[in-house]
Amino acid sequence: MQQLNRKKTPIVMRNYGRILQDMISYACELEDKEQRDAFVDYIAQCMRQKNTVWNRDQESGTNRIAEDIARLSQGRLQYEPQK
Fold first, then answer.
1. Considering the chain, what is the average pLDDT of its residues?
2. In terms of Cα–Cα distance, which of 6, 9, 14, 5 is closest to 25?
3. Percentage helix, strand, coil for the chain under 3-state DSSP, each rounded to 5
4. Which helix (H) or strand (E) holds 29?
């Protein structure tokens, strides 16, 4: 019986999960600025949805999402919500 290969890196923010963490890592590697910005907007949308599931009592503001994206990307990505 063969074992599955699982990632050993720790999940930094459990409320977002490993998939969003991997998405942010991928976005950091994108060279096309327009594509990267669009992907960061999508990531922020997913983070808002995850926050509503985990924190029903708190409103997930754009400031918190922007701070979390900057923290997870170690300052390489900046999220600016579209107005």
1. 86
2. 9
3. 55, 0, 45
4. helix 17-29
